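Regression report. Comparing outputs from two consecutive submissions.

Submission 1:
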Amino acid sequence: MCKLLRSLGFCLITLSAIHLSTAAPTPEPQSDQAQSGTKAWAGWENVEKLFVFGASYAGTGFNWLPPNPAPSPSNPLGNSVRGGTSSNGPNFVTYLTTTFNASFIQTYNFAFAGAKVSNTATSSTPYAKNPGGQNDMVAQVTNGFLPSYTTQAGHEPYANWTAESSLFVSFFGINDILATYAKGDRSSTAPMFAAYKQNLEDLHTAGARNFLILNTPPMELMPVFRNGFGASDWQIPIVANNQTLVRQAVQDFNGEIPDLISSFTSAHPDATMFVYDVHALFLNMLSGSSASNALTSQRQLKPLLNLQTACPFYTQYKSGRGQPVDYLGEDDFEDARCEGSVGTYFWLNGIHVTWPVHKVMAGAIVEELKGGATGGYEG
């Protein structure tokens, strides 16, 4: 990944993020801030609103439409439901909001299971369990965020926010690749990223200036591809050379992100963009090395001992006890039929990771947003 970025004048550091703010002429004046290229990023400690777009790794079960409860001091994630994450507990969005926050944060989360960047680009039908058409980034932005939280709403926005105090988070790629990898067809990558860029453009036009993009993890190491775990549950086609095909698809997807950032920041010098390297983080954690163990111990977590597969009794978002999971609670329960407690597993099921992995990821993201020891890039 690093060599892909050197041509752009920066390098994606392992376990770090790119903080890229490229100076360039503004093509069309949109505001005083845009004309001057003034940055709105005031630091993680000043973030008060998170707007999140993505799929099951990011979702918390939020429904933004009244009369559903909005984020508040007593409920910073809004009406997010118990069991509304894919992690058997908190996910990285929960941790960013309630654990690693440096200020009071309210989170408006449009992410939903099965979401892709663009259903049109992947020639894929919407996720069947997806209510309200909230099935890709296009719908999350144009049907969710824009008509609810901007002046395009035709009514008072459901929440007040500013460019300086807001961070827009997007995490896509997994479902896009699941929908296309088996065909070995890379033709969808260009239209997919054209749609990604247009979504960012729409957010920028609405006033967004601070962005965090997460790249795609090493999907070939997911149990569903490593040993077929849960393939029938997720209706994922397992074909010959599946790990090779998935690895190539992930490389293609992540390889497009530097061009997306370069193009967007050149057109919008007032934008600040962070990219977090989830791919490198997962490779490190799955290595089982002392460095990997240090990541979990830093967050007061058990060492991850089960790295290659999942336990069927911890899967499908359930606690193994037939009860919904408290998405705010770190419930390290144990089923005697599994090889250790859920907190010692990296994978919850064939695709998703457990809450300890999300905690490590959130902590590492915040280190980058704060300009932590591992550093980032600012140019």
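Submission 2:
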Amino acid sequence: MQTQLVPDTISHDDFKTYRTCYDLDKKRLPDKLESLSELRYTDVPEAVAQRKKDGEAFLEKTEVQSLVEWKLKIGTYRPSLAKLVASNSVEEVRKTTSAAFSLMTDDPNPAKAISTLSKLKGIGPATASLLLSCYDPISIPFFSDELFRWLHWRTDVSGNNKKRKSKGVEDDGNANRKIGYTAKEYASIFEKTTSLRERLSKEAEEPVTAVDIEKAAYMISKSVQEDKSNGNDDTDKTVETKALYPPSPKRRKKKS
């Protein structure tokens, strides 16, 4: 990965290039996935925001199921996960999501809310973060593979991998590093996303959200993966050139 694209050094201009490419790439999605993406990024967050205004924010069971379906289609496919989520009752989903969202009112750190949501069957830290992101898309990042690996990618000025730890989670330059989907890993994601969001917002003098970072990370990671699969040296490409040809989402078969 080019040194200019790692989180510590990426400029807002480069970041915005990849962020914009996500929306362009979305136009190539199959109809079903495009519909689910609309639910994930627009419909569900707007519904939760309206309920919050009405006095109680929560998610409906059907909304959680749709979000999980979206997550499985853009990431590792695990059919048993959907069945587990479906086994939660409508009341359990409403009650648990309401309790989790209420915790966010008094404490911006999502750790307790993640723990609360994880009480639902089929909901671990990664999926819990997706639900929380719909409640607060500005500051709560979704624990995607691409975001985790990008945020924990470090290289020194020579382009060599440089390892470092944050919240007990080691940074490295392995694009295929294993992910445990643990609360500790999510704590590191949250800390790094917050820091990056504040830096880029200050640099651009305009708000940068956690969802913006999620989308940019997706495109950067996919671009790197495409270069490696094609046997290309991505250091020979400019950000602008690479971003003109963003890769299409592909179902991954890795176990998570």
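Expected: both submissions complete independently.
Actual: both completed, but the second showed a warning that disappeared on reload.
Relevant detail on submission 2: The radius of gyration is 18 Å.
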